[in-house]
Amino acid sequence: MKLYDFDGMFDKKLSDYILNDNGKHKESEWEDLIPKLYKQFGDTFIKSVGDTPNGFYAKMSDTELVKALRTHLKQGVPVSEFLCSAIESRGAVDLLLPLLDGSGDERDYAISILGAESKALKKYMSLLIDKDSSEDLKDRCADFLKEKADEVAAEAVENYINGVEREYMLEIMSRSVIKSDKIFDILLKEFRTDPDNVPMHASYLAAYGDERALKYLLDKIDEEGVNFIEYRELKYAIEALGGEYTKTRDFSGDPYFDIVKSHEVSATDVFANLDGKN
Predict the structure, then answer these.
(1) Per DSSP, what are the bridge partners of residue 51?
(2) DSSP helix/strand/coil, 34
(3) pLDDT band for position 264 (50/70/90)?
(4) Which residues of 109-131 are buried (b: 16+ CB within 10 A; e: fewer)?
(5) Taking Cα atoms as reference points, which of 99, 160, 92, 94 lies closest to residue 125?
(6) pLDDT band for position 275 (50/70/90)?
(7) What's residue 120's pLDDT?
(8) Could you tell me how far CA 44 lies from the centroid of its own chain?
């Protein structure tokens, strides 16, 4: 199979373009211009190829496209967005799924192209609970699982009960749209029994959207020992669920409050200076 380093070709053309630009464009302008030039390059005829990058891949079958991806990775030839876009446009899900069990590069590209594809969720969950998976890989899998939380909610509950990656499972459960007393009870129990992570568990209750949590959030925010960071997250969760907390609280001396206030003052000073004020 003939492989082309389209990104390398583009970089060469871009270098020539910048060299001949003679400083007409500022650095900030190049940041916006380069993606546009790259997109245009996809439809630019390349004599050595006999086609445009997009045209070259358009002539391939779904199987050939996925084979091209694997060959690029195996031989260390850069994979262009043109190839990835061509595969994604075909919806070649069944051909991509085996790559999730392939090399690290094959898996990473497959995840990027498949996204929150329902057929990939089972594999994402297995990667998430695999002790050998990196935190970055677990985070990527969790993000897509959260998008389809209702489809994996039962498995998330089971993993939670079995003590497997509980924090990830709580986050996934909190994104469920179809309500469940079991999930609500789990999220509420964690909120009430984990005093060291109040903001996180409050955010899960807010995301879940069950108004029954309001009573417990209001009780918690009223406690004297609540610090400023906890207070802010609790207040957000209360408002997200349609409630309101109007009691005035004094956080003078709270280290978190002092840090936040000092940052706010710094930001105010910056903007004042930008306006030419003292």
Answers:
(1) 46
(2) helix
(3) low
(4) bbbebbeebeebbebbbebbbee
(5) 160
(6) low
(7) 98
(8) 32
